[in-house]
Amino acid sequence: MKNNLLIKNFITKKFYNIKKNKRNIKINLKLLESTFKNLHKDKNIFHLFYKKYELDFALKSFKKFEKFKSIIVIGMGGSILGIKALHSFLELKVKKEVIFLDNLDSYRLKKLSRIIDQKKSLFIIISKSGNTLETLTNKNFFKNKISRNNSIIITEKGNSKLNKFSKNKKILHVQHKKYIGGRYSVLSEVGMLPAYLMGLKIKKIRENLSKYFKNNDKKLLCESSSIMSQNYLSKKINSIIFFNYCSHLNNFVYWCQQLMAESLGKNGKGILPVLSEAPKDHHSLLQLYLDGPKDKFFYIISAKDRFNKKVDKIVKAQKNALIKVLKKKRIPFRIIHINNFSESTIGELFSYFILETILIANLIKVNAFNQPAVEEVKNLTKKNLR
């Protein structure tokens, strides 16, 4: 039986030091082993991977919301990118219309306000702090359509604007746990509740989350994060190109982009994560990628085309041709191939990239859980609006 996904690295020794690699792998293994022992009791980001992690909602309380034909999800950044990734990856299993509001676009809001039927639409409003400016602005645009009968709010406990709105309107509130940062929250209530209401099997999403704490999968994770950490420190690599041959994974890449940029881009360190759509970008950016500065690391993402054998054959030939050239030019790359579009597969993908990011952060000595530059801009924005 095939694994849900294949992850394999193709990296020459030019891009890592063998001695450092062995030392880093030991550090990673030690961290994973000690973390795995305490998954059940430590209330931190790793608790998400605990098999018996308790979601802050009872499914029976949300049965009344299953009747809605449309779901409007309002959020920003980590509060919504993971849900978009889930939706895109499992789109064929979602039987409802799902609309995502994750930017400020007054023209789009105006169009949506005309067509949204509040009797058939469920609003899910998400903000960790409860004070996210863009989320509150988008929520206010629909305040006359939002009621206790068609809305759910996910935010931290406290006196935030979103919490006050929830209490005033008597809207059902689901707690966003304080110890879970937004970009890591997809495996918590933030991602699982919308997934359930989209008709997805959330137990299946979470069933293999501890996979990368074990055996060969653990070794892959530890070695990969060690090699990547050396590239973050050496500064030989300036960009990670997610060269994606599967459009159903574009939103997953956008989730990865935030995860990597906000977790690892600080203290003068960081590698720019970039989405490149293939095969479209064979005809635009590929020339630069292959014949320009040798400062890029490629993540080649693919899946078997489920709809057309001829298209699958063409895309496979293009991907294999690219891999051959990358090997010839000794450009480092990683293959990520999806064998199965299932709930458990997307859960494993989230798990792998979250853990790899945290391990890299530990090795390059940055805090994977803060975003000081983002907070600085937020604070200045508030001052400018006074």
Structure description:
- The protein is α/β, with parallel strands linked by helices.
- It folds into two domains: 5-36 and 209-372, Glucose-6-phosphate isomerase like protein, domain 1 (Rossmann fold, 3-Layer(aba) Sandwich); 59-205, Rossmann fold.
- Helix content is 43%, strand content 15%.
- The protein has 13 helices and ten strands.
- α2 runs antiparallel to α9 and α9 runs parallel beside α12 (343-364).
- The radius of gyration is 21 Å and the shape is globular.
- The mean pLDDT is 95.
SSE diagram, text form:
Layout: E1 5-10, H1 18-37, E2 70-74, H2 81-89, E3 97-101, H3 106-115, E4 121-126, H4 133-141, E5 151-155, H5 161-169, E6 172-175, H6 189-197, H7 202-206, H8 215-234, E7 239-244, H9 250-264, E8 272-277, H10 286-291, E9 296-303, H11 309-328, E10 333-338, H12 343-364, H13 372-384
Parallel strand pairs: 2-3, 2-4, 4-5, 5-6, 7-8, 7-9, 9-10
Antiparallel strand pairs: 1-10
Helix pairs in contact: 1-8, 2-6, 2-9, 8-12, 9-12
